[in-house]
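Q: Could you fold this chain for me?
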Amino acid sequence: MIPDSSKNRLLARTIIASQFAPPFMFSGVAVALPAMGEKLNAGGTSLSLVETLFLAGSLSFLLPAGRLADAGDKRTLYKIGILGFALMSLLIGSLSSITAILGLRFVQGIFSAIFAATGGALLVDYVPPERRGRAFGASLGSIYAGLTLGPIVAGWLVETYSWRHVFFFGAVLLLVSFAFAAEMMPSKRDVPLRVLHKPSMSLLTSAALLLVIGAAQVQHGGMGYAMLAGGLVLGVAFVRVQKLLKQPLVNVNAVMSNRLLRNALLVQMMVYFQALSSTFLLTFYLQISRGMRADEAGQMLAIGSVIMALFAPFSGRMADSVRPTLLAMLGVASVWITGLMALWLNNTSSLWWIGAMLVFQGIGFALFSSPNMTVIMNSVPPTKTSMASALAAKARSLGAMGGMLIVSILISIKIGADKVEDHPEEMIDIVTTAFGVLVVTTGLALIVSLRGQWGQSGATTATTEPSTEAVQAMSQS
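A: Sure. Below is the predicted structure, expressed as structure tokens.
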């Protein structure tokens, strides 16, 4: 039982507040990409790599970060993640080489993985079970506040100064978060790297890089497809290796035997196909195909995030008293409607239609995220919360990278290394085609939700403790 002391409540609020800065950067960078491409003479494939390489770095290190946090001091790792993210932002904003920027984005993704894998686990350390839904809801509210202000502030910075100031401003926010966390959470500086299985990490990193670079090279034919195939083969090899290890980065058998955890992760991955990719697509649609300024596009994109910020805390509170899987299912349905509406976008679409799309998306992710996170964190024993947090973040990253891989392949085929501003009509084709695929992935998530496969073996509320079978399975990882 976790004591609900005033110190723990203050620490929980510190963690929740620090969640603001990274999503501010995520959404802000998306709005800055067209201006970055114009100033650095970067083509469509390079701009898609700015996002996908970041996701590849995150994907490569999420599970190692979870293992490190479970074996050592997660507070130290949490602060390393924030500081590293900030320093990478400063460096990226100072560079004029798109190649160097792409390399640093991959490293920045690694630091974001450390941050993501430990944040949820620290909340579990400081918040009693009966209040975790509310805490996760508040955390998501902070995240969505960052997502809301990111496009607005970034759009203003791009129009007033340059794309570089988006990274500089984000770095300042992250450094403030680091200083706050360092003051409130003294740590032991214990990071036991010996617990990591280096061959597994190599397989995972190589698979992610091959998939990302292969998707960007599809216009070259055989080479691009060969890299995609190689990435898939290495991904399968990673899973098979984990099944053979006594201490794997992820206990595949344990996850598969924990029905509640398995299906919550699966649905989360499929829903997040539409997370970052939709922001990326709509940014270019509004600025390139519709001719909006960066600040105007940022204000439009902020609609969905405002809705998320307003509804996420409410959804978190509801998850403490209403079956969280039901709330999450309603969220999936709302996200699916967003994708359907996007299929009718063209160069004369009403701004009211686009705004309604973003409202549905905001409601969907607000209803889905906190309840689903509550299910995930309460489906494992307390000793495995860091790994569960890492698995949840990995499911999000897998989905986000999957969505961006779809976008990268379409950009590679239709635009390639050309400047995106020279292809406004092709960008509309990319947007509608990509959303067509996303409707399918979100539809599959909705089917799983409707069948109720990921709620029947667990509890109906956030306070549920994992089943005996689940505890035994996860404790073997």
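A (continued): The radius of gyration is 21 Å.
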